[in-house]
Amino acid sequence: MSTDLVEFLHARFDDDEQAAHAALGTNELAQPAGQQARWVRQGDQIWSQGRSDVPVVGKTWARPAEHIVRHDPARVLSEVDAKRRVLADAASFTEDGQQAVFQLLALPYADHPDYRPEWAPGTSA
Predict the structure, then answer these.
(1) What is the DSSP string of the chain?
(2) Cβ–Cβ < 8 Å for 37, 50
(3) Nearest-angstrom CA–CA distance, 77 and 56
(4) Each residue's pLDDT tens digit, 110-119
C-alpha cells in the first residue's frame, strides 16, 4: 500500500485533532484523552459541560443542534484516537487487508484536495 495514503491519513487525523482542540479552546496537553468536556444541548443552545457562562453555539434549530452535540470535539478526539489505533494495528494485516482498511479510513476525506481517486475502496493502488 502506498505510503502516500498512510501519510495522507496521518495528516487528516492531525487536522481533525487540531480542529477539535481549537473548538474546545485547548491544546493536546490540556486534558488527558477521554476527559474532554462534552457538549450538551439545552433548549436551543449548545453548552460545554462544566461551563455555564457562555454557550458554545447560540440559538440553533433542533436537528442541527443534535448533530453538533453528537459530533462534539471530545467525540472527534476519541474517533481520531481510534482511527490511529486501527492504522497501527493494520500493520499486522495482509497487504490486501491493509489496502482495504486504509482506503476505508480515507473515504470520509474524499472531498479533500489531496485525496486521490485511486484510493477509493475497491480500487487497486
Answers:
(1) --HHHHHHHHHHHHHHHHHHHHHHT--TTTS-TT-SPPEEEETTEEEETT--SS-SB-S--HHHHHHHHHT-HHHHHHHHHHHHHHHHHGGGS-HHHHHHHHHHHHGGGTTSTT--GGGSTT---
(2) yes
(3) 17
(4) 999 999 999 9
**Alpha-carbon span 11 to 28, nearest angstrom:** 16
Rg (CA), the chain: 17
Q: Which amino acid is located at 13 in the chain?
A: F
First and final CA of the chain: distance in angstroms?
Answer: 7
Cell of 60: 440553533
10-66 tens-digit pLDDT: 999 999 998 888 777 654 444 445 555 666 666 766 666 665 555 566 666 556 666
Pull the grid cell for residue 56: 458554545
Instruction: Show me where the domains of the chain are located.
Output: 3-32+70-119
